[in-house]
Write a structure and sequence with these properties.
Elements lengths: L1 H16 L10 H4 L27 E6 L5 E9 L2 E7 L9 E5 L7 E4 L2 E5 L4 E5 L14 E4 L13 E3 L5 E3 L1
Length: 171
């Protein structure tokens, strides 16, 4: 009797693991991106390039959020700000939405957890990432994480990285 119960439980387990026949099959054509690839660059086989935005200013570093939002730290201010936030709204690989925020010319930008980190030439700041539908973090959420770096005339940009535990390393 115990053997029968064991087989019944095992059969129910395997039956529950099977994919549902009710699920719709995905059309492979619908999943292909509608990108216009930039053929002017020489890339390793298997790689493609797309110009997402070309008039935002001189980009230093970029970070991409899991919802597809792209954050670009600019070398110089554009529209009074130093970070560009880009969003491809229609899936063609081009940024239809471009918004600017942040102060302080710098180099670094990164996403870790629910935060966007950005550096100026003298400090590293952290912003709370907004909900997935909102592109730009609020300036009120910006806090100083590391500062007091000396002003320099050469190699003043503060590149940085974060490890998996969230420890910050500044160059």
């Amino acid at each position: 009797m115990h053997y029968f119960k064991y087989l019944l439980c095992l059969a129910l387990f395997f039956w529950s693991c099977e994919p549902s026949s009710v699920e719709e099959e995905k059309d492979p054509e619908m999943e292909k991106p509608n990108y216009e690839f930039d053929e002017s660059l020489t890339l390793q086989d298997g790689f493609k390039a797309v110009v997402v935005a070309d008039e935002i200013g001189r980009a230093r570093h970029i970070a991409v959020r899991d919802n597809g939002a792209v954050y670009v730290q600019l070398a110089k201010e554009n529209e009074g700000s130093t970070i560009a936030a880009l969003k491809d709204e229609d899936g063609n690989g081009k940024a239809e939405t471009v918004e600017y925020f942040g102060k302080g010319e710098g180099t670094g930008v990164a996403i870790h957890g629910d935060y966007l980190y950005a550096s100026s030439d003298e400090a590293v700041y952290r912003y709370d990432l907004p909900d997935a539908k909102t592109l730009v973090p609020s300036e009120e959420s910006r806090i100083l994480i590391a500062g007091g770096f000396p002003q320099q005339t050469n190699h003043e940009s503060k590149t940085f990285t974060l490890d998996n535990d969230g420890n910050l390393y500044v160059n």
